[in-house]
Amino acid sequence: MAVLAINLSAKINAVSALHGEVSRKLFWSGWPGVPEDEVPITHITNGVHARSWISEEICDLYERYLGPKWIEEMPDQKSLESRW
Hints:
Blueprint: H1 2-8, E1 12-14, H2 17-26, E2 41-43, H3 50-53, H4 56-66, H5 77-83
Parallel strand pairs: 1-2
């Protein structure tokens, strides 16, 4: 079914960089003469809507320690370390 879907698709996306790499290896034979790393299977890393996945208590905790705009402006590792 995967081969059928690939053959009928205008564009092929994997759900992560690793999934794209594995998929290019698996389906490489579908593109004779094309180097494996040039097989046209791209990847889109799925994002997570953080506010939908955390509890109200955790949101309050993040706002207290990271500020009210934590969701729009995620702090980098270095700035997080400096807060502790």
